[in-house]
Amino acid sequence: MVKTYSQLYLDARRALLLTEDAQSASFMARNLLCHFSGKTHESILASRDLYASEEVCKAMEDAVAWAQSGKPLAYILHEWEFYGLKLYVDENVLIPRDDTVAVTQLAINQALFLDRDPRILDLCTGSGCIGLAIASRVKDARVTLADVSRDALAVAKKNVTSHHLSARVSCVQADALKPASSFLGKFDMIVSNPPYITGEEMKELPISVKKFEPHLALYGGDDGLDFYRAIIENYTGALKPGGLLCFEFGMGQGDDVCTLLQQHGYTILERARDYNDRERAVLARYGG
Fold this sequence. Notes:
Blueprint: H1 5-16, H2 22-37, H3 41-46, H4 54-68, H5 73-77, E1 80-82, E2 85-87, H6 101-111, E3 119-123, H7 129-137, E4 142-147, H8 150-162, E5 169-173, E6 187-192, H9 199-203, H10 207-212, H11 226-235, E7 239-248, H12 254-263, E8 266-273, E9 279-286
Parallel strand pairs: 3-4, 3-6, 4-5, 6-7
Antiparallel strand pairs: 1-2, 7-9, 8-9
């Protein structure tokens, strides 16, 4: 049964109100309709009394059902915006979050003052959001996106291509829990948003995260710090003398992460907060 664009929006919003608050239901209904109709918000308003095609009506029906099941909007749309970049995402990678802007901005601010053509490694890259944001702002940076998951790297490669950054951004498979391969070479900076959810926190994840987002990219060991220990141990040797290590961490983990860095010869340069004023990232230099 075909419906007008206005009916499609109102029916989607009404259905989503069963699981979402009013603001979220309106936002999701509007974005789903724009995505599946190929129209802008303004075009939908101008076309609100026109009938949508059967394909658009069916796509909206299916999408709303997915949303009601808890599937995040980003996975339904297969896209999400981060740091001004529209990125492809699917269930092989975490959805980029505003929290991650803190570590991204910290890395960009420092990378702008590095020597010419700096080499930067985005370890545990997922969608590639951090490394691509750096490459988009630091025009001479040579960025390597690394992840243990081949499926995640396939997503990252799509994003490299879609943003026409293949000349300066490469993708490689690398395991943060194992010693860095010598073929990677040396980097001016390593930036990472590694898995940091604790064992107890894994039990309490929201259904949209627990059911749909990759646990490989979430679980950081019983205390959430396994990847910080491993990266410091395995990848410090991949830094140039005086190289930089930039981490995102979970709420309340800042002191522990900084202690690990200091115990291995790093000097803490800066600790940064996210949009919610929670401490979220650290920048450290190896060797003073």
